[in-house]
Design a protein that fits this description.
By secondary structure, the protein is mostly helical. It has helices spanning about 10-40, 45-75, 80-105, 110-130.
C-alpha cells in the first residue's frame, strides 16, 4: 500500500461526509430559492412568510437526517432505504400538521403546502448523492 492509498474502511466515512456535504449544500440552495419564491410570489403577508420559513427549516433538518439514514440503509437494501425515507418524511408531515403548526401558531395552508414542496424539490436531487 502506498502512502496515498486509503484503506477501504476509512474511505466509507469520507465518501459519506462528502455526499452529505454535497447534498446539504444542494438541498439548502433549492429550499432557500423555493422559499424566497413562495414568500415573494405566493404568500407575501408576514404570517404566511413566517410559516413558509419554519417549514423550510423543518424540511432542511428532516431531509438531512433522512439522507443519512437512506445512505446507510441503501448500501444493502435500496428499496428499504427509499421506503424508510418516505416514511420519515410522511411522519414529519403528520407531526407538523397535527402538532407543530398549532404549537408554533403558524398559518396551516402555507406551512403544509410549502413543506410538501420543499420535500419534493429536495428529493429530486437526492439520487445524485446516494451513489
Amino acid at each position: 500500500m502506498t502512502q496515498h492509498a486509503m484503506p477501504p474502511a476509512a474511505a466509507v466515512p469520507m465518501r459519506m461526509g462528502r455526499a452529505l456535504l454535497g447534498f446539504t449544500a444542494a438541498q439548502g440552495t433549492i429550499i432557500v430559492v423555493a422559499m424566497l419564491v413562495m414568500q415573494r410570489v405566493i404568500w407575501t403577508d408576514a404570517a404566511a412568510a413566517s410559516a413558509v420559513r419554519a417549514s423550510a427549516w423543518l424540511a432542511f433538518a428532516v431531509q438531512s437526517f433522512t439522507f443519512v439514514v437512506a445512505r446507510l440503509v441503501a448500501r444493502e437494501q435500496v428499496i428499504a432505504g427509499w421506503g424508510l425515507g418516505v416514511l420519515l418524511r410522511f411522519a414529519s408531515l403528520l407531526f407538523w400538521a397535527f402538532l407543530g403548526i398549532k404549537a408554533l401558531g403558524l398559518v396551516s395552508g402555507p406551512a403544509l403546502i410549502s413543506l410538501v414542496v420543499f420535500y419534493f424539490v429536495s428529493t429530486l436531487v437526492e439520487p445524485l448523492f446516494l451513489n
